[in-house]
Every structure is written in C-alpha cells, then in structure tokens.
Write a structure and sequence with these properties.
The complex is a heterodimer of chains A (299) and B (287).
Chain A: H1 2-10, H2 13-41, E1 44-45, E2 53-54, H3 58-65, H4 67-99, H5 105-117, H6 120-130, H7 137-143, H8 161-187, H9 191-199, H10 204-215, H11 217-232, H12 236-241, H13 253-263, H14 267-292
Helix pairs in contact in A: 2-14, 3-14, 4-8, 4-11, 4-13, 5-8, 8-11, 11-14, 13-14
Chain B: H1 2-44, H2 49-54, H3 66-74, H4 77-107, H5 114-126, H6 130-143, H7 149-173, H8 177-185, H9 190-201, H10 203-219, H11 222-227, H12 236-243, H13 251-286
The chains are: A mainly alpha (299), B mainly alpha (287).
Chain lengths: 299, 287
C-alpha cells in the first residue's frame, strides 16, 4: 500500500515534466540546435551580413591551405601531448611526495592548487610581463650579466620557444588539479596493502610501482581526459600572453577560431575550425577511455 | 648480531630523515615558484613606472597608491567586478535550481526516459563553448540579447548544467528511501519532498557544484569578450584583458590592475582553502 502510494507519487507525469523542462529547453536551444547550425555553417560561405550560402567542402579545403591553421593544429597537438604527459608525471610526482609527508601537507597542497582558481587572464598577463623582453626574468638575468632570449617572440625551431613557455605556464597553473585527483585516489588506498607489501620485502619505491600505480589507473583516465579537453579548448593564456603572434606562430585552434570568426567575421570558415575542434575532443576522450579505463579494484 | 640490528635501524632512520629533508627542500622550491611571481607583481604594483626599470627587485621606496586608483577608474574595474558578481551570482542560483530539479527527476522520479535524458545532458560536457559561439552570437544579435548581461548568463547557465546535473543525480540516488517514504506518508507533495527534504540533504552537492560553477564563470574570458562590447557591461576578465594590453605603456598601473583582479579570489581562497580545494576535487572526481 505504502509502496503503491510512493510509486504513484514518483510517477507523477506533471512533476516529471515540470522538473525536466527548464534544463531540457536550455540544452536544446543553447547547445543542441547551435551545434547543428554550426555544422551546417561549416559548409557555407557566411559572413554575417547576408544569409549563409551553401558551398560544400570549400571551407574544409581552405583549412589545409591556410598557413595559420597548420600552425594552430600543430600547436594544439603539441599542447595536448605536452599537457597530458607533463601533468601526469608532475601531478603524480607531487601527489606521491605530499602523501608521504604529514607536516605542511595542506599548506603545500593549497599553494600549488591556488592558480587553478585564479583567472587565467590575470595570470597570463602576469607571466607575459615576467617573460617580456625588458622586465621580469630578463631583468634578473641582466643582473648576472646575461642577456635573456626573447621568450615570447623567438621563432626558431620546430616547436618555437614561446610555445614551450606557454606550455610550462599552463603546467604551472593547472598541475594542482591533477595532483589533487591523484592524491584523492592515493589516500583511498588501504594502508594494509602497503603493510603487506613491506612484510613481503618491498621498499617504498617498489610498493609505489606495484600497488599505487595500478590502483590509480582509473584516475589517470579521468585526469587525462580533463587535461586533454582543457588543452584543446585552451584560449585564455595564449590570448593574453601572445595573442597568437608573432606572425600567427603561437596560434592554437581556439585563438584561430576567435580571430577568423570575430575579427574577420568569417563565420563559415570559423565554424569549420570549430568542427575540427569538436571532432578532436571526441576522438581524444574516446581514445583515452579506451586505453586507460580499467576495472575498479576493490580497495 | 644485536649491534648489527641496531645499526641497521639507525641507518634506516638517517636515510629516511635525509629523504624527508630532500622532499621538504624540493617542496619549498616548488612553493617559491608558485608564490614568487605573485609577490613580485604585488611589489612592483606599488612602484612608479621609472622605479620598475631602475630597481625591479627591491622593496618599493614608497607605497605609490595612485596606480591602484588609476587602474580602478580608467580600467573600469569597479563596474566590471560588479558585472562579474551579477553574472556569476545569477548563474549560480539558476544552475543550482534548474540543475538539481533535472537531477531529482533523473535520479528519483520513475520514468522510462531517465537514462536517455542523462546521456543527452552528459553530451554537453564534451562540447566546448567555442563550437556554439557563432550561431549563438548571430541569434542573440537578432534577438537584441548581445551586449547584455542576460546574453552571457544564458550560455553560462547552460554550460554549467551538465556537471551540476551529473553530480546532483549521484547525491539524490544515494539518498535513503525511507526519508521519502515517511514524507510521503505524512502527505507531502512531490514538490514539498524536493524542496524540504531532498535539497537540504544534498547540501554538500550544492556546495560542490556551486563552487565549480562560480569559479569557472568568474574566470571565463572568450564568450564574454565576444558577446559584450559595451564597456559598462564587461566582466572582470574582459576589462582586465583590455586595460592591460600592448598599447598601454604604464606598467605599474597594469600590475595594479592584475592585483585588483585576483585579490578577491586570493582572499576568499586563503580563508576557505581546504573546503575549496576539497570541493573542487570532489567535483572533478565525480565529473
């Protein structure tokens, strides 16, 4: 009787509709429809003033001819790989260190996490000044009689110096998040597992390799997906540190989309860049989850 | 034998003290890399422009506060902070309400389409905001929503929903059945159950999702920059990015502007750092 009453209450059609409608409506109007429109625009010549005109694959063909697009794609991929690898290594390393100390653990943790909550606009501008030709690091180098490089303007090499600088700043800003994810997972591992491994003759390094690493693998997948999507969407730091310059050499997909779409009003072409971005996002998360997802062990 | 044993223990102990010391030295170095840039900017923001170039690393001779007053007024940072507060506050409240309503329906109410609904919402997590900006921008321009705070609140709200719904659904599903049963016996309506029982019980979830939403929207630059061109409607990151640019040559004022932009977050973070870090991590783990 009670169960029947409750079932009736929980199957209340009107309530279900009232609860779901706002979210579903927003999602459809602001996300789903625009995505479809965006895909359609990517096949169109569309500059905002006149209605979109269907031109087939023209925009996609132009993508390959566009030099800045090549830079953007290369930089985005570099960024993706660099941030996945560096965040994994540094995040795990910091997490391993912090879980091994007691005094000051919270303090260090909070200091390293701080930039994650700060505006990357402000931090990007801050680092822009630190790496600018006459300020910050170069002023310090001058004191030692050295002349610093043009950190954000040098254009030699396959991956140019500004990209490395920006990549390290991004690592500096976001490594706290990976570190916290790994710490959360590591502190969930039962100490009895470690005790057993010490009795079996493992030292700390060995037990890290044989116990910690396999047990945090699911979290590696989560953290890596977050990094991957974050690095593909990456915009704020680059926009504020170099604006894609010098000569479009530090352009990434997001800044290129912004420039093409909202500086030159090439909506159709920018939509094609957006489609490339979304395909990459889906592809990368799919790959990571396929290769990294393992069953969750009982801990 | 005995001596060996003690020697071994002693050796092990000194070894582990050395390792501990090395860990601390390394961590202190890391902490310096994190704090030094912020402190340097704070320090030079009190200097005059000439002083930055003549003595960049010494303490400022006098606290030159004009930098701050100039950055505040010329950079229009006051109105920008207010706008950011309005946008983030409204988005926060609405996303918590709309998000937990949908999450309650998916996690607790009984209907066939619950799973497909969830998948639909989760797809939203994969989509970067860049990809919908162009259609939204042209649509909002036609509707007269561009250049208004409402115009950025709507997309912010939508993009905050997936993670809110995902986390809140987890909270509602793990809630004990008995509570709802007893409320049902007491004759509460489904809306009463949602507002008076489910929501208060999911406080932690609301805190976590609210925090994530607020931090993400407070720092958002791209969409706000595209959608708003009127100085009086700009949010903090947009005004900051515009004021601190290649055409400005007064460095100390720009440094002051950066400090003004980050100081509220830093203060709140210093007070609630543990809750913030744990909350955001919990959100990321679940999301």
């Amino acid at each position: 009787m009670e169960e029947h009453e409750m079932d009736k209450l929980l199957r209340n059609k009107k309530a279900i509709i009232i609860f779901l409608t706002p979210a579903l409506l927003l999602f459809t109007v602001v996300l789903f429809v625009p995505i479809c429109q965006s895909i359609y625009y990517s096949f169109c010549e569309y500059k905002g003033l006149t209605a979109p005109e269907f031109i087939g694959l023209e925009n996609y063909k132009n993508l390959f001819k566009d030099k800045s697009m090549v830079f953007a794609l290369k930089n985005s991929l570099f960024f993706l790989i660099f941030s996945c690898v560096s965040q994994l290594v540094m995040g795990l390393f910091l997490a391993a260190l912090l879980t091994n100390i007691k005094k000051g653990r919270n303090l260090f943790k909070n200091i390293i996490y701080l930039p994650c909550v700060l505006s990357s606009t402000a931090l990007g501008l801050l680092w822009m000044f630190i790496f600018s030709p006459k300020l910050g690091i170069n002023q310090a180098l001058e004191k030692f009689g050295m002349e610093g490089p043009l950190w954000l303007m040098d254009t030699s090499g396959f991956i140019i110096l500004p990209m490395w600088v920006i990549a390290f700043v991004a690592l500096w800003q976001y490594v706290g998040q990976s570190m916290m994810l790994y710490m959360a997972q590591i502190s969930g591992i039962s100490t009895s597992l470690y005790e057993a491994s010490y009795i079996d003759g493992c030292n700390r390094a060995k037990s890290f390799i044989h116990i910690t690493l396999p047990l945090i693998k699911p979290m590696v997948a989560t953290a890596m997906s977050l990094n991957a999507i974050g690095s593909l969407k990456f915009f704020d730091l680059i926009f504020n540190m170099t604006e894609g310059g010098p000569n479009h050499r530090t352009e990434v997909l997001a800044t290129h989309l912004y420039t093409q779409g909202f500086k030159y009003n090439k909506y159709g072409y920018a939509s094609a860049i957006g489609v490339v971005l979304i395909v990459l996002c889906l592809l990368v998360t799919g790959l990571i989850n396929k290769f990294m997802k393992t069953e969750n062990y009982e801990m | 034998m005995k001596c060996d044993g003690r020697g071994y223990i002693m050796g092990d102990k000194t070894k582990s003290t050395i390792v501990k010391t090395m860990i601390y030295v390394f961590l202190i170095l890391v902490a310096v890399i994190y704090i030094a840039p912020l402190l340097w900017v704070l320090m030079v923001s009190f200097k005059t422009n000439a002083e930055i170039f003549s003595s960049p690393f010494s303490l400022p001779e006098s606290f030159y506060l004009e930098n701050y007053t100039f950055a505040w007024t010329a950079g229009k940072l006051g109105i920008a902070t207010l706008n950011s507060f309005i946008v983030c506050g409204v988005t926060l409240v609405l996303s918590m309400l709309i998000g937990s309503m949908a999450a309650f329906a998916i996690g607790r109410l009984r209907f066939k389409l619950a799973k497909p609904c969830m998948t639909f919402f989760l797809l939203g997590m994969m989509i970067p905001v860049h990809c919908v900006m162009i259609p939204l921008f042209t649509r909002f321009a036609k509707m007269g929503l561009s250049n208004s705070l409402t115009g950025i609140i709507i997309p912010y709200l939508t993009f905050s929903l997936p993670v809110t719904i995902f986390i809140m659904t987890g909270f509602f599903q793990s809630m004990p059945n008995e509570l709802i049963e007893s409320a049902c016996i007491d004759g509460a309506s489904i809306y009463g159950i949602f507002f008076k029982i489910a929501l208060p019980l999911a406080r932690t979830g609301l805190f976590v999702t609210g925090l994530m939403t607020f931090v993400a929207n407070w720092n958002e630059l791209l969409l706000a920059m595209v959608f708003i061109s009127d100085d009086a409607k700009k949010t903090l990151p947009v005004s900051l990015s515009k004021f601190v640019g290649p055409y400005n040559t007064n460095y100390s004022q720009m440094f002051a502007a950066i400090i003004i932009a980050i100081i509220p977050t830093v203060i709140v973070y210093c007070i609630f750092s543990n809750q913030i870090v744990d909350g955001l991590t919990a959100g990321a783990v679940k999301g």
